Structures are given as structure tokens and as C-alpha cells.
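ARCHIVE CARD
SHELF: 3
SLOT: left
DATA:
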Amino acid sequence: MDKMKATYEVMLGLASEMVWDEALRKRRSDILHREIDTALATGDKLAFRNLTEELKSLA
């Protein structure tokens, strides 16, 4: 029974890490989209390129 409990706790920990990672990825993606919009509005080509590359790497 203790082995099952330990296995369950490990699985629960992994699941929570996956949820946390996805939340962080989503938050960063939202920020990048806003920054890309700003770069487009101001005509900042370098920022646009850098930000879009980072956004691609999140996928």
C-alpha cells in the first residue's frame, strides 16, 4: 500500500509540474503577442524578429 501511495504522490507531482509549465508558457506567449503588436506598431523590425523567434521556440 505504501508503494502505491508513493507512486500516486510522484504522479501528482508530475501532473502539477505539467500544469505549472503550461501556465507559464501561456503567460509568456500572451506577453510576447502584446510585445510583437507593439513592435509592429512602432516599426521596430529587430524587436519584432527577436520576439517572433522566441514565440516560435515556445511551441
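SLOT: right
DATA:
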Amino acid sequence: MSRFRLPGENAVTESVSEPASTLRSEHRADVIVVGAGPAGSATAYHLAKSGLDVLLLEKTAFPREKVCGDGLTPRATKQLIAMGIDISEEAGWLRNKGLRIIGGGSRLQLDWPELASFPDYGLVRKRDDFDEQLARQAQKAGARLHERCNVGAPIVNELTGQITGVHAKLGEEKEPVTFHAPIVVAADGNSTRLSLAMGLHRREDRPMGVAVRTYFTSPRHDDDYLESWLELWDRRGAQDRLLPGYGWIFGMGDGTSNVGLGILNSSSAFRELDWREILKAWCASMPAEWGYTPENMTGPIRGAALPMAFNRQPHYTKGLLLVGDAGGLVNPFNGEGIAYAMESGAIAAEVIVQAQARATYAQRELALHRYPKVLKDTYGGYYSLGRAFVKLIGNPKVMQIATQRGLTHPLLMRFTLKMLANLTDPTGGDAMDRIINGLSKVAPKA
């Protein structure tokens, strides 16, 4: 497929020792994707499947660890199916039936809803293996993956201000290289140095969260349900304090449990507390037979930021598209990021494919500017509801009342599960679906 050139873009200078064809095939592409996490790999996969030449640049080498709960909802499962990933148990995936919610002295077990739009099961898999599965699938589709490729500054066209490539250091030797493409996708996570270099900074008016987790050898490793604890108590002081967040326990099916906390920045406790110590204290309050004790810990406690509700915008500018955590696509209702990372990658790929087929620069720009509009139409109203939810539960008294009273009403909790997990049928759904979809449509798409 022929490559298009931006106005004022200079041809790559060819070295004497390297023929132009080699330089072009190794260092040029239709699209550069920076970061091979779920967002980047999904983007690269869908682009490559559509016939575009894609460079996928990953700063580390696989396998590599990332902080995550490792639990995937049906929304994320749908995206794995769309990528052709083998999600069978034989391939190492553990299926789950739904969510077990604990709080307010109650315990409620809810199956994932039966919908036309999503499967009725979720999955569990460790991130150190999960990300590599997606990156290899993108490779199979035709994407050119470079591991140990640390991307630095963008290459910007002086006449147009457009990004036309990136500088990078490649391999263990950190060899300086440049890669060129008329479109670049930032899939480099919450820190997204590429976006910052292009002048895109985090919005302070959007919620942020932190996830901390570790693994324990535990007899609870083989659980059919993801487990969420809605009351997160700090019991280390003279008086117990309810914190703005939740705890989780996900059985990994391999003899271990992933145990962690998700915390919102909606109160002063966000910055003043040591969340690793909170996790230790929370685990110490668990029944001894579960094994969540220091001697059973199989790895260190790690933490990561959760950028929520479009906290970096615009999602397209000057040849750069933001996907996944780089664009703040984490769901503010439940802290889920993988599903939205993969979905935004698929949306970005579809927009790029259409733009690449346009005849002129102006037409291509018109097509690319559709990307942030599609994101806002898809998630904007729902994320606005989520921002309101975050503010509400930032009040410990509100959270405590909601937990104590809500869990005694299974019908209300089934509605809440659909709302928090964003699992509805867009058309032909039940009354709950219509209410949730209606609320999302009327909420501001900011």
C-alpha cells in the first residue's frame, strides 16, 4: 500500500552505505505505534489486518510485568475474541462467571449479564504473559515489532507542526535510530512521554486512581468469580476510617491469588496514606486459612496510576492519536482499563485506515479529526456519569450507606453491576439497559 506524504515533508536522507529500499523498509511505515501494551498491540493488529505497514515499538522486552488486577470483564473478553486470541483453558486462560461483592455485612454473588453484545464470562491471566500474547498476535497480523526500543523525542515537521516520526534507542546497545511515518499513535501508558513532548498535558479536573497489588500462594486460587470488597477500612489508628476505594481478590488458577486495592483521588487520604501499608493491613485482616500472609507472598507490592475519564485531550492533534491510558480511557466507575485500551485501539485503527485512503492532506486531516469525536460519542456521556460517581463515593458516609443498603437489594445490584462494568446492549436490551444507555446519552460528552 502506498505511503502518503505530508505537505512540506522532506524525503529521508539516504546513507551512502545503506540502499534506499532497506532504509525505507526498516525505518519507515504507514503508522508508528509507540507502546505494545493492550492499546498499542490492538491498534497495530487492526491496522496490520487492514493492510497497512505498522511499526510497533516497545521499550522493554517480553515477557514483562505490569501492575494489574489480571481480571478481565466480558467487555475485554470481546476484544480478545475480535483479535483472534485463543482464549481456551488449554491455552492458559481461566474463565470467571461474574462478580462477588462484599460489604456492609453482606455478600452477593452476581453472574455477568446475558447480552447479545458481550459474552457472559470474563477471563483471568497475568499481565506479564497477557501483553505478550497480544503483541505476538499483532506480529502475526503483519506488524513489525521492535522490543527494547526506547522512544524519545518526536520528529516534528517545521512547516506544518505535524509529527512525522520518532527518535529512539534500539537494543541493548541503545543504538540511536529514527523511525518515520505520517501518523503516530501514542500507546505509551499513563506517563506518555510522547504526548507530553507534543504539548498534551493531563487535565487536573479529571479523576485519578492508584492500584496496588501483590500475589499470594493461596487455596483460593481457583475461584469462578472475581471478588470485590466495597468497604476498604484503615484500622491502624485509634479510630477506623473508611477509605475511598475498593479491594479485590482474583484467583489466578495457578496456585496464587492477585490481591490488591484501587483508590480514588477524591479525598485527602489519597496522598497522605501509604497504600502499600494499607494493603498489608487489609490482607492481615483476612482469614488465616486464605494464606494472605507475608511468608506466602510471591512477589513485591507494586503500584500504578489509573488515568480516568479522558484526562488527556485532544485525542488527535498534529498527526498524533492517543489510545488507552495515554488518553486517560480508564473507566472511572470501576478502574477497568484493558477493555477501553483495546477498544480505543480498534477505533483508532478504523479511523486511520479510512484516512490513509483519502487523496489529499486536507481530506486525511478531516478523517483523523473524527477520532476524538467517536471517542466522545462512545464514552463521553458514560464517563461524565462516572466522574459524578467518583465525587459521590469520595464521601465515606455516602459510600458506607450505599454499601450497607444497596447490597441487600439484588435487583438494584444487578443494575449497578451493569452500570459499573458498562455492560449493556445498545439496542433491544432490557429496561436496565435502556435506563443506563439513556443516562449516558443525556450526560455531557466532555
